[in-house]
Amino acid sequence: MRIRDHLAGERRSFSFEFFPPKSRQGVETLFATIAELQALAPTFVSVTYGAGGSTRDLTIELVGRIKRETGLEAMAHLTCVGHDRDEIGATLARLAETGVENIMALRGDPPRGTSEFVRPANGFGFASELIAYIRDGWGGRHDFCLGGACYPEGHTECPNKEQDLRNLTAKVAAGADFLVTQLFFDNEHYFDFVRRARAAGITLTIIPGIMPVTNVAQIERFTSMCGATIPAALRDLLDRCPDDAAVVEAGIAYAAEQCRDLLARGAPGIHFYTLNRSTSTVAVMRSLTEVRSGK
Q1: What is the pTM of this model?
Q2: Would residue 228 count as lying in a domain?
Q3: Is residue 211 part of a domain?
Q4: SS (HEC) of 133-159
Q5: Residue ranges making up the domain that contains 259
Q6: What is the DSSP letter of 52?
Q7: Is 295 inside any structural domain?
Q8: Residue 57 lies in a domain
Q9: How high is the pLDDT of residue 257?
Q10: Separation between Cα atoms, residue 85 and residue 132, nearest integer Å
Q11: How far apart are CA 13 and CA 170, in angstroms?
Q12: Is 5 exposed, middle or buried (0-12, 13-18, 19+ CB in 10 A)?
């Protein structure tokens, strides 16, 4: 199933994102997590792609195995980092052979230990270039459905939101089929971003990305890296937590309220950044039982 076909209907999309574990035991733990989440009938799941393509083979292996063993629709992430056109073409061919129909096409973060993205020789420097290559330059050998990332609070490397929106317009014009946002904790950032995108002529489905907080230090690190902000209400809530278990419960409650508000105000679904854990995501999803079926 191509994700764009699901989004063309009136059903909301609920999806989960995972990252490739570092060990075989971690892989088996991940599949145990997927088994728990499978009961929630997600529209799709996605598997990220390590910096510099460091998990390329494992990402391909995981999305193929998810499709074969669980029947869930699996989307592979693919980045520009460290790959030339021929290497990306070979990766696309492998994904097509495994039956993968959906790709999240990203520029990607600089490899660990470096601070700036470097365009690979005979490679790409922007997600829009990668999307255009998959859609047209690769010869149209496989009709992948292409997702793109967007940033309600602006990309960290962009000087302002206006330029960030122009970059997104180029990504859409290159052939993206739908968009998923970076994580955020203030829904007004999402709805303001959607309004600006629509005013710029972007009509694609924009799925909000939500990460339930499970660890304070971790979420502070993530937000500092991606440019998202922690609103005062959430920070106050976390500051009142006496221990880690309370942080998890507070994170579930906050994310659940975020999701209810997003859906009530017309969001087309939710994409959960799970960090390969099921407990918080399951709890949030179960709290949405009454609104999940809404149109």
Answers
A1: 0.94
A2: yes
A3: yes
A4: HHHHHCCCCCCCEEEEEECCCCCCCCC
A5: 3-289
A6: G
A7: no
A8: yes
A9: 97
A10: 12
A11: 25
A12: exposed
Q: What CA–CA distance (Å, rounded) separates 229 from 223?
A: 6
Helix, strand, coil percentages in the chain from 3-state DSSP, rounded to 5:
50, 15, 35
CATH number at residue 216: 3.20.20.220
In 174-209, which positions are buried (b, 16+ CB within 10 angstroms) versus exposed (e)?
bbbbbbbbbbbbbbebbbebbebbeeeebebbbbbb
**How many distinct helices (H) and strands (E) make up the chain?**
12, 8
Beta strands per DSSP E along 240-281: 269-273
Which residues are CB-contacts of 225 (< 8 A; sequence separation ≥ 6)?
156
Instruction: Write out the catalytic residue numbers.
Output: 17
Number of domain units in the chain: 1
For each of the chain's 295 residues, which pLDDT tens digit applies?
899 999 998 789 999 999 999 888 999 999 999 999 999 999 999 999 865 555 778 899 999 999 999 999 999 999 998 889 999 999 999 999 999 999 999 998 777 667 778 888 988 999 999 999 999 877 667 899 999 999 999 999 999 999 999 999 999 999 999 999 999 999 999 999 999 999 999 999 999 999 999 999 999 999 998 999 999 999 999 999 999 999 999 999 999 999 999 999 999 999 999 999 999 999 999 999 766 655 4
Residue 71 tokens read as 């029947």
Report the distance separating Cα 205 and Cα 33, nearest Å.
Answer: 28
d(CA 244, CA 213): 11
**DSSP classification of residue 166:** H
